[in-house]
Amino acid sequence: MIAKLDAASRATLSATLPDWTLVEGRDAIQREFRFRDFSEAWGFMARVALLAEKHDHHPEWSNVWNRVEILLSTHDAGGLSARDVALAQAIDALV
């Protein structure tokens, strides 16, 4: 079983992942990315897909033209876990 983030880890989220926000009413984090055009956004999504496979952790996401929204939460944990933080950090390293 994957453990949810403890209170100490949650307290550092804003410093660890400054561009991610907590989702109200859901134990999740999200971030919006904007690109020059659809092609650049799609390329980013392809790179994130490869990261997600490597981390064996898959985001909820959407794409509209130059915008990509990513939401992370660990279903097996019933909320945020270290897996979400690790994937968010890996995604941040792409941009």
What can be said about the biggest beta sheet? 4 strands, antiparallel
Q: Roughly how much helix do the residues carry, as a percent range?
A: 40-55%
Number of strands: 4
CA-CA gap between termini: 31 Å
Question: Which spans of ≥5 residues are poorly predicted at pLDDT below 50?
Answer: none
**H/E topology pattern:** HHEEHEEH
**Number of helical elements:** 4
Provide a quick synopsis of the model:
The chain is α+β, with helices and mostly antiparallel strands and 95 residues long. The protein has helices at 7-11, 13-16, 38-55, 82-94, and strands spanning 21-22, 29-34, 60-64, 67-72.
Write the layout of secondary structure elements.
Elements: H1 7-11, H2 13-16, E1 21-22, E2 29-34, H3 38-55, E3 60-64, E4 67-72, H4 82-94
Antiparallel strand pairs: 1-2, 2-4, 3-4
Structural features:
95 residues; alpha+beta; four-stranded antiparallel β-sheet; 4 helices; 42% helix; globular
